[in-house]
């Protein structure tokens, strides 16, 4: 089959009206990636060597996302874009890309941008049917909840006759639970004549891709049906379905992580991203959210209620509970990041301890540094961001403010409560405080005054 050329057509021009959104439906993210990204990945993994991407007018964010993704996964020269100006239905959308297969292509895989759980293995099975002589291959599934999917109508020998869209279906047809995933494959040689025969004589006055099986029958072409699970074929048409598919996607990601030797005490409370990399023997406690761009090496523990986005975390690090790691953080081995610590754009070397209530941003922190409770790197002057460098072995006393740009030298020691605005040399003790004032025995006067006030208040209440 590898000798057969394959074009993947991704349909993403729909207005997504049921989404009530300002952005195209297929740009809505699942596990941190726009849903259409999964579809493009699946097409390429199934052997598509070219992608034709069909979008609507004024969808520049979608086009730039698809372009960037296409460049990454298939190369700049192999993705082309087609605008479907009037959204007149799924068959009309495929025809918008007709010049993509003009030159002759064996297999045409038609994918919907709103069906992101599709697996490349399923697409490979569909292509096998084309290789075996089918001209049209339909992907269907048995649904426990058939919703508004098109229904596959079969004869008594279970051969597919036609697909009936929900809105055009009779009551008895709606009772059929074998549904159309929308995903279809066509032999390149017959695609154009089939698509050009589609009309819009239906409840929505649209050109339905789902009319192809009936038309193929009439042209005495061969039709095959491949089956997938209800989950894999799930389409997303509204926010409730988006939330449902997110839960399915999260389960997939969690199960993959568990299978690779990650421990999660309550996996259902841990949220991962499409690109999360977790090595074996990572332990994740309940209620943790890992945004895109996170990798965690073996032996690291992420305790409850942490949110981490865009971070590279080495072996045997301890994070949390309640830590917030924003993009641009690297943590070297054996570092400890404790509760209510926020890190951003920070390079933290091995053995560093930042255990409580700190903000460290735009900073590099050297080996073995200890940062006390309540330390802040003051990185922003209201206009620009500035960097702080804390060299190896330094100790920063609690509740200190390090006003950037600033360098703290190796093994320097900053006394608690200091506001440091000048570079501190290596091996230097530095502290800045208001002088301590003491008045011997004076505290007794305050106690007496306080007792008198309390007595007076009590008497006033009695009257
Ligand atoms: C479609 C199928 C239905 C199937 C269901 C599975 C048709 C007519 N119906 O219905 O049988 O059960 O998917 O999820 O094919 N699009 C365009 N241009 C258009 C219209 C749609 O590019 O003019 C794109 C959309 O962006 C979307 C995909 O095609 O990615 C499917 O469109 P949608 O409107 O969601 O179709 P469904 O009503 O879900
Ligand atoms: Mg849909």
What is the topology?
Layout: E1 6-12, E2 29-30, E3 33-34, H1 35-45, E4 50-55, H2 60-73, E5 79-83, H3 90-96, E6 107-112, H4 120-131, E7 136-142, E8 151-154, E9 160-164, H5 171-174, E10 178-187, H6 188-196, H7 212-218, E11 223-227, H8 239-259, E12 263-264, E13 270-271, E14 277-278, E15 283-284, E16 288-290, E17 295-296, E18 301-302, E19 306-308, E20 311-313, E21 318-319, E22 324-325, E23 329-331, E24 336-339, E25 342-348, E26 353-356, E27 359-365, E28 370-371, E29 376-378, E30 388-390, E31 395-396, E32 401-403, E33 406-408, E34 413-414, E35 419-420, E36 429-430, H9 442-462
Parallel strand pairs: 1-4, 1-6, 4-5, 7-11, 12-15, 13-16, 14-17, 15-18, 16-19, 17-20, 18-21, 19-22, 20-23, 21-24, 22-25, 23-25, 24-26, 25-27, 26-28, 27-30, 28-31, 29-32, 30-33, 31-34, 32-35, 34-36
Antiparallel strand pairs: 2-3, 6-10, 7-10, 8-9
Helix pairs in contact: 1-2
Bound molecules: uridine-diphosphate-N-acetylglucosamine and magnesium ion.
What's the oligomerization state? single chain
Discrete helix count: 9
Please outline the major beta sheet.
12 strands, parallel
Helix proportion: 10-25%
Find the CATH topology of the largest domain.
Answer: Spore Coat Polysaccharide Biosynthesis Protein SpsA, Chain A
Bound molecules: uridine-diphosphate-N-acetylglucosamine, magnesium ion
What is the strand content?
Answer: 25-35%
Give structural notes.
The chain is an alpha/beta fold. The chain folds into two domains: 6-227, Spore Coat Polysaccharide Biosynthesis Protein SpsA, Chain A; 252-430, 3 Solenoid (UDP N-Acetylglucosamine Acyltransferase, domain 1). The chain contains nine helices and 36 strands. Strands 13, 14, 16, 17, 19, 20, 22, 23, 25, 27, 30 and 33 form a twelve-stranded parallel sheet that branches. A hairpin with a 5-residue loop joins strand 8 and strand 9 (160-164). Helix 1 packs parallel to helix 2 (60-73). It is elongated, with a radius of gyration of 31 Å. The protein starts with 5 loop residues before the first strand and ends with a helix.
């Amino acid at each position: 089959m590898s000798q057969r050329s394959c074009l993947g057509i991704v349909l993403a021009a729909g207005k997504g009206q049921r989404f009530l959104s300002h952005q195209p439906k297929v740009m809505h993210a699942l596990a941190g990636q726009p849903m259409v990204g999964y579809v493009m990945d699946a097409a390429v993994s199934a052997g598509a060597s070219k992608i034709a991407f069909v979008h609507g007018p004024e969808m520049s964010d979608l086009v730039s996302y698809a372009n960037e993704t296409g460049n990454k996964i298939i190369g700049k020269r192999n993705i082309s874009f087609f605008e479907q100006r009037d959204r007149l239905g799924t068959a009309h959308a495929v025809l918008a890309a007709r010049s993509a297969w003009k030159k002759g292509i064996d297999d045409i895989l038609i994918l919907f941008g709103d069906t992101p759980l599709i697996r490349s293995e399923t697409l490979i099975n569909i292509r096998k049917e084309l290789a075996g002589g089918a001209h049209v291959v339909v992907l269907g599934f048995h649904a426990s909840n058939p919703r508004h999917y098109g229904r596959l109508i079969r004869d008594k020998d279970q051969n597919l006759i036609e697909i009936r869209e929900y809105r055009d279906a009779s009551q008895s047809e709606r009772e059929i639970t074998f549904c159309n995933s929308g995903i279809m494959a066509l032999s390149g040689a017959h695609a154009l004549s089939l698509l050009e025969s589609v009309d819009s004589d239906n409840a929505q006055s649209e050109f339905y891709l789902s009319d192809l099986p009936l038309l193929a029958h009439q042209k005495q072409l061969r039709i095959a049906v491949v089956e997938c699970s209800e989950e894999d074929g799930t389409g997303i048409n509204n926010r409730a379905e988006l939330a449902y598919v997110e839960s399915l996607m999260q389960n997939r990601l969690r199960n993959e992580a568990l299978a690779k030797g990650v421990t999660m005490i309550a996996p259902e409370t841990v949220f991962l991203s499409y690109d999360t990399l977790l090595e074996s023997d990572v332990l994740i406690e309940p209620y943790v959210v890992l945004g895109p761009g996170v990798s965690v090496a073996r032996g690291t523990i992420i305790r409850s209620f942490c949110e981490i986005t865009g971070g590279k975390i080495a072996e045997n690090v301890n994070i949390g509970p309640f830590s917030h790691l924003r993009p641009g953080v690297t943590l070297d081995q054996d570092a400890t990041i404790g509760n209510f610590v926020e890190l951003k754009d920070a390079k933290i070397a091995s053995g560093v301890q930042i255990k409580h209530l700190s903000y460290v941003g735009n900073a590099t922190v050297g080996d073995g540094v200890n940062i006390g409770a309540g330390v802040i790197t003051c990185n922003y002057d209201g206009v620009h961001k500035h960097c702080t460098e804390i060299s190896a072995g330094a100790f920063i006393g609690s509740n200190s403010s390090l006003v950037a740009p600033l360098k703290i030298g190796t093994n320097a020691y900053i006394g608690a409560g200091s506001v440091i605005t000048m570079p501190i040399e290596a091996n230097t003790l530095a502290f800045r405080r208001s002088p301590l004032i003491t008045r011997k025995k004076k505290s007794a006067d305050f106690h007496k005054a306080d007792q008198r006030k309390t007595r007076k208040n009590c008497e006033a209440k009695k009257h």
